[in-house]
Amino acid sequence: MRRVLSADWVLPVEGEPIESGAVAIETGRIAAVGTTAELGEGERFPGAAIVPGFVNAHTHLEYAVYAGFGDGLSFGPWITTHVERKARIERAEMEAIARLGAADCLRSGITTVGDLAYAGASAHACAELGLRAIVYLEVFGRDAADALRQFEAKRSYVDAALSDRVRVGISPHAPYTCSLEVYAASMDLGLPVGTHLNESQDELDWLLRGEGPWRPFGAMLVEPDGQTGIRRLAVAGLLDDRIVAAHCVKVDSSEIDALAERDVAVVHCPRSNAFLGCGIAPLAELRAAGLRIGVGTDGVSSVPSHDFFEELRTVIALARARGEEADALSATQALDLATLGGARALGIADETGSLVVGKRADLTVVGLADSAYLPWEDPAAAVVFGGSSHSILATLVDGETRYEKGGDEWHALIAAAARARSRLLGLERPPGT
After folding, report:
1. pLDDT band for position 216 (50/70/90)?
2. How far apart are CA 431 and CA 221, in angstroms?
3. pLDDT at position 279, please?
4. Mean per-residue pLDDT for 343-355?
5. How many helices (H) and strands (E) does the chain have?
């Protein structure tokens, strides 16, 4: 069955914007992209733009109700607060939280996530709500055999949720929580690998000198050896094109070169880095090095929301502030990072990330009738600067509408996640107690 969507503009990303554009969909894939004169109007969205679905390349959907926990703490104590509170809830509550995270992403026009999952609940949430995902199951520790046992237990739990749309990867959490042996064992599985690299000064203080607010928790950490995480992995031959590295805030030119030479992908999470006081990643330098770069919201553990428009505006604002140049990053370039860039980072650009015939029909309809950006001048600027999660009219994955404004608002889902937050805060006791 053929379905056609049309709007004032279609922004294919790979190709010039199309005024009075339309997208035709057949069997879950893009069959044609052109003008309404060529394809017909079909389902018409006036005052709107059709763009590729956003690729949120670094998330933690299982933390969707953690907003504000540890706010104002430096990175080490902040993450410790989360570990302590996370121990208060069980799998069912993690699933409820992850469903809210997946729903929030769809409501913000996100069609694909690269999710680092502590438990694996996000795999079930994405499968249930229809979100495309690579779910990287987190492992921790110094012992490789134990890390693989962690992975297999989580893999068994998520197996029923896996499909062509929801795939599994592994996440050795970070160089301060995982030994080189754990990284090597993770790489040997031949799966996509997600990790956190050079995120904060607290992290570097520990790895370089064994100092900082981590010291009280040293028994939980990998012994420092005087090298940053990137250098440690590079020397060990454990960096390659399967790795998606979140953050890379505290990096120097030699580390950027090491990442580029090994084709490691980087996910830029500027709001998270800013709210945690970690700094501003050198986006211009990373782009100049030719790295595959995507954008991620990170978890609502460190940012207020999954609103991808807020993330994109922060990407632009901080790039311009860091470079002290008004043209350091354009709206068009930011939109590319948010879609095709993220798909390239996750290794799935042949499937999604742009509106090209043959790709999966993952797309978002952004309504701008209530914004300051009508009449149109630059459609990319109108979308990036004028859009918000509240302006999403429809989000499609594989050609199926997964979110429609005014449709199912997921009231029961939201209530279940709120109860889980109460447990995290110690305000509600477990059932049966």
Report:
1. low
2. 33
3. 97
4. 98
5. 16, 15
Kindly state the average pLDDT of the residues 368-384: 92
Residues 6+ apart with CB under 8 A from 14: 340, 354, 355, 356
Which residue in this structure is represented by tokens 């970070």? 174
Measured distance CA(340)–CA(346) in Å, rounded: 10
What are the structural domains, with CATH classification, of the chain? 2-52+363-397 (2.30.40.10), 54-346 (3.20.20.140)
Q: Are 224 and 207 in contact (CB under 8 A)?
A: yes
Q: Which amino acid type is present at position 92?
A: A
pLDDT range class, residue 218, cuts 50, 70, 90: low
CA dist., res. 79 & res. 212, Å (int):
14
Q: How confident is the model at residue 217 (pLDDT cuts 50, 70, 90)?
A: low
175 phi/psi in degrees, rounded to 5: -65, -15
Burial of 160 (0-12, 13-18, 19+ CB in 10 A): exposed
Percent of the chain with pLDDT over 70: 97
What pLDDT does 213 receive? Answer: 83
CB-count burial class (<10 Å; 0-12, 13-18, 19+) for 25: buried
CA–centroid distance for 395 within its chain: 17
